Sequence to fold (337 residues):
Amino acid sequence: MEDATIYDVARLAGVSISTVSLAINHPGRVRPATRERVHQAADAVGFVPKEHAVARARRGLGRIAVVAPFSHYPSYYRRLNGVFSELKDTATQVLIYDYADMATLESPLLSALPIRGHVDGLLIMGIPLSEAVADRLGGRLPTVLVDASHPGFPSVTVDYAGAGIEVALHLQSLGHRKVATLMGAAVSIPEGSPGWTRLSTFQDVYGLENVLRVIVDRRSGGGAEAVEAVLRNGPDGPDRPTAVFAEWDLLAVRFLAAARQTGIRVPEDISLVGFDDGDLPEALGLSTVTQPMEETGALGMRLLARALDGDDSPGSVQLTPALALRSTTGPAGGPQA
Fold:
């Protein structure tokens, strides 16, 4: 519909214009069914707020949005630094949104962003897309995925599946037969997310019967809780895991500290591997998987810039992480007596 207005959206959705305004500008304050009805109506009539439509017609707004689970995974700030490095000589504004609810793929924010029309493009980091959100974004707003992928969207990904396999094969080479995975979850972790993928392929190599899955609340630390779970069959029991693979480094560091307080030696009693890498893991001698965080953010911004310049197929990139072996895995042959 040419020059669609908020009244057209309200009429089609069967709601008031104030409800339309809330569903677009404050989507979390509207009931999901009503919000989806408004968003579908806006899609149908091609509604964009007038001031943003005018600005976009004049060479764009010079503004992008970055959405990531910053409060759940601080590592995404490092990816954001990569975005900033690409934009350092430009006047592009960056709006940052925290994706706080990792328990659901149906994000009110991601549904509303393409309708609001207040950004030229979107970087989504580490968030699997639902089909409904993917359809809405794909039709209305140039979008690049970082640390996630979906058919039809350019993306920058890391080979998490391969990394999980590499860690498992290395621990097997050290003689570890019973192992544990350590995941920090304040909420459910979506299937297909980075942490789920690397721990899943690790588990596939070992076999379900040989892997103890330990889930702790990331907000409370969880180190002592994880050590207790690993030792539940007794410190010398035949089914006790002799190696732990943590979803990310901070969980591994907390496990390391709690193990030492309990008198558990690392790596003599339990080997430990984390994921991400950085100054703290290196200083502590933590064996981990080094992933190119800043590079993923920079490449994502590069692909988005190409899309904003009119490239309909800017492509996708997959990067390979590297296993950094340090003192927490120890020598070949498994835990020492």
